[in-house]
Hints:
The chain has 91 residues and is an alpha+beta fold. The protein has helices spanning 2-6, 8-22, 26-32, and strands at 35-52, 57-72, 78-84.
Amino acid sequence: MFRCLESETTTATLVRLIEESAAPLAEIENVAGQFAQDSTGFSTVTYDRWFDQKHGKLMAQHERVKLHVMIGTATNVVTGVKVSSEGDCPV
């Protein structure tokens, strides 16, 4: 199951399903004309490890990714998504 979810073709299919599920509400959202963007970070199961010279000890933390979403303000429907390791500003 995880290999299927990691596939690029699965990602494209899931994004397309989100966009198509929001399509019936496009007319309502086009009248309101406002969308809101938000993002949230979540950790993965992999660790980044390094030796911290400043504190003299081995450090570890989870690798993090961000989920960016675009939401219509009239219907609260998710109209678009993107998962990345980028911060909020470039997206």
